[in-house]
Amino acid sequence: MKKEHLKLGVALILTSLLLYVIHFYIFHDMEHLTIFLVSDIAFVPLEVFLVSLILERMIKKHEEERATKKLHMLVGMFYQEVGDKLLRMFVKADEGIKLNDIWISVDTTWTKENYKELEKLIKSHSHIINIDKIDLKELYKMLSFKRSLIINFLTNPILLEKDYFSNELSSILHILTELEYRDIDSL
After folding, report:
1. Residue 84: is its pLDDT beyond 60?
2. What global pTM score does this model have?
C-alpha cells in the first residue's frame, strides 16, 4: 500500500512540474510563475488542514453511526434472546408493580413523552423482588442455555465500550454462576 502512495505522490509531483514547465513555455514569465509557485506552496498547509479536518470529522461521524447501528442491533438481539425473558421473570416477581402500571403496556403507539414518563416511573420505583415468585430452576435453565451467547456479548468490543450494558451482562453471568454452585432446591 505504501508503494502505491509513493508512486501516486511522485506522479502528482511530476504532473505538477510538467504543468509549470508548460506554463513557462507558453508565457515565458518566470517571475509570475515563481509568484504562483510560492503562493501555491504557501496554501498547501491550509489545504491539508482543512481537508484533514473535514475528512476526519466525516470519517469519525461515519464510524460512530456504524458503531451505533451495530450497538443497537446487538442490544436488540440480546433482549430478543435473553433480556425480555429475564425482564418478564423479574417484573412478575416485583411486588411494587401493579398490573395496571403504565410500563406493562408499552407498544408501538408510544410517543417520546410516554417514554419520558416511563423513565421517571422506573427511576422512582423501589424494586421489591420476591425471590419466591421466581422459578430459579427455569432461570438457571434459560441462562445456562444462553451462556455462550451472553459471553459473546460480553466480549464484543462494541458492547465493552458501553459500561452500563457490560455491567448488566456481568451481573447476569454472576447470577448464572451463583445458581451453578448452589443447590437450587434449598434456596
Report:
1. yes
2. 0.60
